[in-house]
Amino acid sequence: MINLERFLNFLSGNIYLLIIFIVLGLIAHFWGLFYIREHRNEDFSYSGHLHVWYEGSEFILFLAYIAWIVGLLVANWLALMYLFRS
């Protein structure tokens, strides 16, 4: 198992670093969101179904999804840690 106690104690002692990590998490989250929205295409078929596809590299799209999910999780987790620090 990874021992996060030292890292969490370090972050709780350095509030400015904690705020920087929150901002970096939000930047990664919004980059992923905007990349996905920018490369999404839709087409309405005559059968009544909506066809959605993405243009661009599948690897970059995968990274955008990961950044979208992980960025939000990191930002929320660190923001809660900032609010409830003792």
* Distinct helical segment count: 3
Largest sheet: 2 strands, antiparallel
**Unreliably modeled segments:** none
- Counting DSSP E segments of at least 2 residues, the number of strands comes to 2
Structural class: mainly alpha
Distance between the termini: 25 Å
| Coarse morphology | elongated
Share of residues in helices: 55-70%
Order of helices and strands: HHEEH
Q: In angstroms, what is the radius of gyration? A: 18 Å
Mean pLDDT: 82
- Which strand-content bin applies to the residues? 5-15%
Largest sheet strand order: 1-2
Topology readout:
Layout lengths: L4 H9 L1 H24 L1 E5 L5 E5 L3 H26 L3
Antiparallel strand pairs: 1-2
Describe the 3D structure:
This protein is mainly α. It has 3 helices and 2 strands; from the N terminus they run ααββα. It has helices at 5-13, 15-38, 58-83, and strands spanning 40-44, 50-54. The chain has a two-stranded antiparallel sheet. The longest helix has 26 residues, at 58-83.
Structure at a glance:
The protein has 86 residues and is mostly helical.
Tag the structure with descriptive keywords:
86 residues; mainly alpha; two-stranded antiparallel sheet; 12% strand; elongated
